[in-house]
Amino acid sequence: VQLVESGGGLVQPGGSLRLSCAASGFTFSSSPMSWYRQAPGKERELVATISSTTGITQYTDSVKGRFTISRVQRKNTVYLQMDSLKPEDTAVYYCYAPRYASWGQGTQVTVSS
How many other CB atoms are found less than 10 A from the CB of residue 103? Predict the structure, then answer.
């Protein structure tokens, strides 16, 4: 199982970023997928989850209405569109395949003016 995140960077408050996670080594289409984040000095927290086939999504309260998780099955890729970013969104963002308990290497998102 391999998960490779990309798309992080430095953005000003109110800006947007789209994270991507390219998956390989397992049957992506039948696996729920999640995004987590970990800020300095804090525990890793679940940000969003998308089901395998129905596309049902769930979000932590702090990102509802600002973040959107989606997936493209034919590309074996899951995305996290992040809008109206706030300084408190600064963290390393990780892709996670819960069925396989596998993590990506993470991508840094910094929201700062």
Answer: 16
- Residue type (1 letter), 74: R
- SS3 of 62-74: the string is HHCCCEEEEEEHH
- For residue 78, give both structure tokens: 């899951």
Bridge partners of 98, per DSSP, are: none
Q: Is 45 left (phi over 0), alpha (psi -120 to 50) or beta?
A: beta
Q: Please tell me the predicted confidence (pLDDT) of residue 29.
A: 93
Side-chain half-sphere CA neighbours of 58 within 13 A: 8
| Residues, the chain | 113
- pLDDT tens digit string along 75-104? 999 999 999 999 999 999 999 999 999 999
